[in-house]
Design goal:
Helix content: 55-70%
Number of domains: 1
Largest sheet: none
Number of strands: 0
Distance between the termini: 67 Å
Number of helices: 2
Shape: elongated
């Protein structure tokens, strides 16, 4: 004689292979990171124009953050992150975020 005991727990959610969780969060993250890239590129241009003697003093006089290459690399990094998050989010999440915004008073 054989006894089989089955213990049932809560049902587990299974992710489909084509599902992308947190698409709306990815779209919001992309929208938040894109302005950081713009700020980095603006600071890069400011420092570059100061090096050429076209404008006055830069906000950071010396140190690691006083080089235009650092700001340019930061801008590229943030722009790539924003593009990657936007690609992950897809157009459905962006459309869903716009619908959510329209429904709010």
């Amino acid at each position: 004689m054989r006894v089989i005991i089955r213990i049932r727990g809560p049902e587990e959610r299974k992710l489909r292979a084509d599902a992308r969780p947190n698409r709306v969060l990815a779209a919001l993250g992309s929208a938040a990171v894109a302005p950081l890239a713009l700020v980095c590129f603006l600071l890069c241009g400011w420092r570059w124009m100061m090096d050429l003697g076209l404008i006055g003093r830069f906000v950071v006089g010396e140190g690691f953050w006083s080089h235009w290459q650092v700001w340019f690399a930061g801008g590229v990094l943030f722009q790539g992150l924003a593009a990657g998050l936007g690609r992950y989010a897809g157009s459905d999440a962006v459309a869903g975020a716009e619908l959510l915004r329209k429904e709010l008073p």
